[in-house]
Protein backbone atom coordinates (compact mmCIF):
# COMPACT_ATOMS: atom_id res chain seq x y z
CA UNK A 1 0.00 0.00 0.00
CA UNK A 2 1.28 3.45 -0.90
CA UNK A 3 2.19 5.94 1.84
CA UNK A 4 0.36 8.73 -0.03
CA UNK A 5 -3.23 9.97 -0.18
CA UNK A 6 -4.30 10.47 -3.80
CA UNK A 7 -7.29 9.89 -6.06
CA UNK A 8 -6.04 8.76 -9.46
CA UNK A 9 -2.33 8.40 -10.22
CA UNK A 10 -2.89 9.53 -13.82
CA UNK A 11 -4.41 12.78 -12.53
CA UNK A 12 -2.06 13.25 -9.60
CA UNK A 13 0.07 16.00 -11.16
CA UNK A 14 -2.97 17.87 -12.45
CA UNK A 15 -4.64 17.66 -9.04
CA UNK A 16 -1.48 18.91 -7.32
CA UNK A 17 -1.21 21.89 -9.67
CA UNK A 18 -4.89 22.76 -9.25
CA UNK A 19 -4.54 22.66 -5.48
CA UNK A 20 -1.49 24.92 -5.60
CA UNK A 21 -3.24 27.47 -7.80
CA UNK A 22 -6.25 27.59 -5.48
CA UNK A 23 -4.13 27.90 -2.34
CA UNK A 24 -1.53 30.40 -3.65
CA UNK A 25 -1.57 33.06 -0.90
CA UNK A 26 -1.25 36.02 -3.28
CA UNK A 27 -3.49 34.61 -6.00
CA UNK A 28 -0.68 35.25 -8.44
CA UNK A 29 -0.47 31.92 -10.28
CA UNK A 30 -2.37 30.58 -13.28
CA UNK A 31 -2.09 27.54 -15.55
CA UNK A 32 -1.87 27.96 -19.31
CA UNK A 33 -5.22 27.16 -20.87
CA UNK A 34 -4.09 24.79 -23.60
CA UNK A 35 -3.77 21.06 -24.20
CA UNK A 36 -4.48 19.22 -20.90
CA UNK A 37 -1.21 17.33 -21.40
CA UNK A 38 0.68 20.63 -21.26
CA UNK A 39 1.12 21.72 -17.65
CA UNK A 40 2.63 25.19 -17.40
CA UNK A 41 2.25 27.38 -14.31
CA UNK A 42 2.87 31.11 -14.92
CA UNK A 43 2.77 34.41 -13.08
CA UNK A 44 -0.70 35.93 -13.39
CA UNK A 45 0.82 39.43 -13.23
CA UNK A 46 3.36 38.93 -16.05
CA UNK A 47 3.38 41.60 -18.78
CA UNK A 48 6.41 40.57 -20.92
CA UNK A 49 8.20 43.87 -20.21
CA UNK A 50 11.19 42.07 -18.70
CA UNK A 51 13.28 38.98 -19.43
CA UNK A 52 11.29 35.84 -18.68
CA UNK A 53 12.89 33.11 -16.57
CA UNK A 54 11.58 29.59 -17.18
CA UNK A 55 12.47 26.31 -15.53
CA UNK A 56 10.83 22.94 -15.08
CA UNK A 57 11.28 19.21 -15.15
CA UNK A 58 9.60 16.15 -13.79
CA UNK A 59 6.97 16.51 -11.08
CA UNK A 60 7.45 14.96 -7.66
CA UNK A 61 10.19 17.37 -6.56
CA UNK A 62 7.89 19.95 -4.97
CA UNK A 63 8.12 22.82 -4.26
CA UNK A 64 10.30 22.75 -7.37
CA UNK A 65 9.40 23.89 -9.90
CA UNK A 66 5.95 25.43 -9.83
CA UNK A 67 6.42 26.44 -6.20
CA UNK A 68 9.18 28.83 -7.27
CA UNK A 69 7.02 30.86 -9.69
CA UNK A 70 6.55 34.43 -8.53
CA UNK A 71 8.00 37.93 -8.43
CA UNK A 72 11.79 37.85 -8.35
CA UNK A 73 11.86 34.13 -9.12
CA UNK A 74 10.51 32.13 -12.05
CA UNK A 75 8.15 33.53 -14.63
CA UNK A 76 6.91 30.07 -15.57
CA UNK A 77 7.44 26.43 -14.65
CA UNK A 78 6.89 23.52 -17.05
CA UNK A 79 5.68 20.43 -15.20
CA UNK A 80 6.29 16.96 -16.57
CA UNK A 81 4.88 13.71 -15.26
CA UNK A 82 6.34 12.12 -12.12
CA UNK A 83 10.14 12.09 -12.56
CA UNK A 84 9.73 12.62 -16.32
CA UNK A 85 10.84 15.60 -18.37
CA UNK A 86 8.10 17.78 -19.88
CA UNK A 87 7.67 17.45 -23.63
CA UNK A 88 9.25 19.73 -26.21
CA UNK A 89 5.77 21.02 -27.03
CA UNK A 90 5.07 21.89 -23.38
CA UNK A 91 8.34 23.83 -23.04
CA UNK A 92 7.72 25.62 -26.33
CA UNK A 93 4.23 26.64 -25.20
CA UNK A 94 5.72 28.12 -22.03
CA UNK A 95 8.34 30.08 -23.98
CA UNK A 96 5.83 31.49 -26.45
CA UNK A 97 3.35 32.39 -23.69
CA UNK A 98 5.68 34.51 -21.54
CA UNK A 99 8.46 35.76 -23.83
CA UNK A 100 8.41 39.32 -25.12
CA UNK A 101 10.99 41.45 -26.93
CA UNK A 102 13.44 41.14 -24.01
CA UNK A 103 13.73 37.36 -24.48
CA UNK A 104 13.79 34.50 -21.99
CA UNK A 105 16.26 32.36 -20.05
CA UNK A 106 15.76 28.63 -19.58
CA UNK A 107 17.24 27.15 -16.39
CA UNK A 108 17.67 23.40 -16.84
CA UNK A 109 18.95 20.71 -14.49
CA UNK A 110 21.60 18.45 -15.97
CA UNK A 111 19.53 15.40 -16.91
CA UNK A 112 19.43 13.98 -20.43
CA UNK A 113 15.68 14.34 -20.97
CA UNK A 114 15.57 17.89 -19.65
CA UNK A 115 18.59 19.02 -21.69
CA UNK A 116 17.18 17.47 -24.84
CA UNK A 117 13.57 18.69 -24.57
CA UNK A 118 14.36 22.20 -23.34
CA UNK A 119 17.12 22.52 -25.93
CA UNK A 120 14.88 21.46 -28.82
CA UNK A 121 12.13 23.80 -27.64
CA UNK A 122 14.65 26.67 -27.47
CA UNK A 123 15.73 26.05 -31.06
CA UNK A 124 12.12 25.99 -32.25
CA UNK A 125 11.38 29.23 -30.39
CA UNK A 126 14.38 30.90 -32.01
CA UNK A 127 12.96 29.99 -35.42
CA UNK A 128 9.83 31.92 -34.38
CA UNK A 129 12.06 34.96 -33.86
CA UNK A 130 12.20 34.78 -30.06
CA UNK A 131 15.41 35.42 -28.13
CA UNK A 132 16.16 32.39 -25.94
CA UNK A 133 19.19 31.49 -23.84
CA UNK A 134 19.71 28.37 -21.71
CA UNK A 135 21.91 27.55 -18.71
CA UNK A 136 22.54 24.07 -17.32
CA UNK A 137 22.80 23.55 -13.55
CA UNK A 138 25.20 20.75 -12.59
CA UNK A 139 25.99 21.35 -8.93
CA UNK A 140 26.12 17.77 -7.57
CA UNK A 141 29.60 16.70 -6.37
CA UNK A 142 28.68 13.22 -5.09
CA UNK A 143 30.91 11.62 -7.74
CA UNK A 144 34.05 13.78 -8.11
CA UNK A 145 35.03 12.33 -11.51
CA UNK A 146 31.53 12.50 -12.99
CA UNK A 147 31.66 14.31 -16.34
CA UNK A 148 27.90 14.97 -16.22
CA UNK A 149 27.08 16.09 -12.64
CA UNK A 150 23.39 16.26 -11.84
CA UNK A 151 21.48 19.42 -11.07
CA UNK A 152 20.10 19.29 -7.53
CA UNK A 153 19.47 21.70 -4.62
CA UNK A 154 21.55 24.57 -5.96
CA UNK A 155 19.11 25.01 -8.83
CA UNK A 156 16.80 26.99 -6.54
CA UNK A 157 19.57 29.55 -5.95
CA UNK A 158 20.07 29.95 -9.70
CA UNK A 159 16.31 30.54 -10.00
CA UNK A 160 16.55 33.27 -7.40
CA UNK A 161 19.62 35.00 -8.80
CA UNK A 162 18.32 34.99 -12.38
CA UNK A 163 14.80 35.91 -11.27
CA UNK A 164 16.03 38.88 -9.27
CA UNK A 165 18.19 40.11 -12.15
CA UNK A 166 15.24 39.85 -14.54
CA UNK A 167 12.94 41.66 -12.10
CA UNK A 168 15.46 44.52 -11.97
CA UNK A 169 15.10 44.95 -15.73
CA UNK A 170 18.51 43.61 -16.76
CA UNK A 171 19.10 42.45 -20.31
CA UNK A 172 18.93 38.82 -21.39
CA UNK A 173 22.70 38.60 -21.73
CA UNK A 174 23.17 40.03 -18.23
CA UNK A 175 20.59 37.66 -16.70
CA UNK A 176 22.23 34.72 -18.50
CA UNK A 177 25.73 35.74 -17.38
CA UNK A 178 24.65 36.09 -13.75
CA UNK A 179 22.98 32.68 -13.87
CA UNK A 180 26.11 31.16 -15.42
CA UNK A 181 28.29 32.74 -12.75
CA UNK A 182 26.05 31.22 -10.09
CA UNK A 183 26.25 27.80 -11.77
CA UNK A 184 30.04 27.99 -11.99
CA UNK A 185 30.37 28.80 -8.29
CA UNK A 186 27.88 26.39 -6.78
CA UNK A 187 28.34 22.89 -5.38
CA UNK A 188 25.82 20.66 -3.61
CA UNK A 189 25.84 17.27 -1.90
CA UNK A 190 22.74 15.32 -0.90
CA UNK A 191 22.01 13.18 2.15
CA UNK A 192 18.90 11.25 3.21
CA UNK A 193 17.68 8.60 5.63
CA UNK A 194 15.29 7.06 3.11
CA UNK A 195 14.75 6.93 -0.63
CA UNK A 196 11.80 8.51 -2.39
CA UNK A 197 8.62 6.53 -2.94
CA UNK A 198 6.41 6.91 -6.00
CA UNK A 199 2.64 7.07 -5.39
CA UNK A 200 1.15 3.68 -6.11
CA UNK A 201 4.45 1.87 -5.63
CA UNK A 202 4.65 -1.20 -3.38
CA UNK A 203 8.32 -0.58 -2.58
CA UNK A 204 7.99 0.64 1.00
CA UNK A 205 11.21 -0.69 2.54
CA UNK A 206 13.82 1.11 0.47
CA UNK A 207 17.50 0.25 0.50
CA UNK A 208 18.77 2.45 3.37
CA UNK A 209 18.88 0.51 6.61
CA UNK A 210 17.65 1.99 9.89
CA UNK A 211 20.31 4.05 11.63
CA UNK A 212 22.14 4.81 8.38
CA UNK A 213 22.14 7.70 5.91
CA UNK A 214 23.13 7.72 2.26
CA UNK A 215 25.38 10.43 0.85
CA UNK A 216 25.01 11.64 -2.70
CA UNK A 217 21.76 9.90 -3.61
CA UNK A 218 19.87 11.33 -6.58
CA UNK A 219 16.61 13.23 -6.55
CA UNK A 220 14.91 10.30 -8.30
CA UNK A 221 16.20 7.82 -5.73
CA UNK A 222 19.38 6.90 -7.59
CA UNK A 223 21.90 5.17 -5.29
CA UNK A 224 24.34 7.44 -3.52
CA UNK A 225 28.11 7.33 -3.41
CA UNK A 226 28.41 6.02 0.16
CA UNK A 227 26.50 5.05 3.31
CA UNK A 228 27.23 6.45 6.78
CA UNK A 229 26.21 4.44 9.84
CA UNK A 230 25.05 7.37 11.96
CA UNK A 231 22.17 9.83 12.17
CA UNK A 232 24.12 12.27 14.35
CA UNK A 233 23.52 15.74 12.89
CA UNK A 234 26.95 17.18 13.72
CA UNK A 235 28.80 14.19 12.31
CA UNK A 236 26.74 14.18 9.11
CA UNK A 237 27.22 17.91 8.51
CA UNK A 238 30.97 17.56 9.03
CA UNK A 239 30.98 14.72 6.51
CA UNK A 240 29.12 16.90 4.00
CA UNK A 241 31.06 20.10 4.53
CA UNK A 242 34.55 18.66 3.99
CA UNK A 243 34.12 17.70 0.31
CA UNK A 244 32.07 20.85 -0.33
CA UNK A 245 34.83 23.05 1.08
CA UNK A 246 37.47 21.16 -0.87
CA UNK A 247 35.53 21.67 -4.09
CA UNK A 248 34.50 25.26 -3.47
CA UNK A 249 37.61 26.74 -1.92
CA UNK A 250 37.73 29.72 0.39
CA UNK A 251 34.80 32.12 0.34
CA UNK A 252 32.68 30.15 -2.15
CA UNK A 253 29.05 29.05 -2.00
CA UNK A 254 28.35 25.37 -1.19
CA UNK A 255 25.02 23.77 -0.30
CA UNK A 256 24.53 20.73 1.94
CA UNK A 257 21.23 19.20 0.77
CA UNK A 258 19.39 17.33 3.52
From TrEMBL:
<keyword id="KW-0808">Transferase</keyword>
<dbReference type="InterPro" id="IPR004006">
    <property type="entry name" value="DhaK_dom"/>
</dbReference>
<dbReference type="Pfam" id="PF02733">
    <property type="entry name" value="Dak1"/>
</dbReference>
<dbReference type="InterPro" id="IPR050861">
    <property type="entry name" value="Dihydroxyacetone_Kinase"/>
</dbReference>
<dbReference type="GO" id="GO:0005829">
    <property type="term" value="C:cytosol"/>
</dbReference>
<dbReference type="GO" id="GO:0004371">
    <property type="term" value="F:glycerone kinase activity"/>
</dbReference>
<feature type="domain" description="DhaK">
    <location>
        <begin position="8"/>
        <end position="258"/>
    </location>
</feature>
<dbReference type="GO" id="GO:0019563">
    <property type="term" value="P:glycerol catabolic process"/>
</dbReference>
<keyword id="KW-0418">Kinase</keyword>
<protein>
    <submittedName>
        <fullName>Dihydroxyacetone kinase</fullName>
        <ecNumber>2.7.1.29</ecNumber>
    </submittedName>
</protein>
Amino acid sequence: MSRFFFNDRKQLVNDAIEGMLISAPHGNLVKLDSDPAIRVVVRADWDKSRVAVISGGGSGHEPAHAGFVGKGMLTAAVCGDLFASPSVEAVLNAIVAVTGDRGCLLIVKNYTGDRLNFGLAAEKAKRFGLKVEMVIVADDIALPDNKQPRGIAGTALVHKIAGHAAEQGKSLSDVRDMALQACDNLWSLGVAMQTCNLPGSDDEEGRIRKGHVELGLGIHGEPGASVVDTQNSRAIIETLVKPLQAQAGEGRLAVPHQ
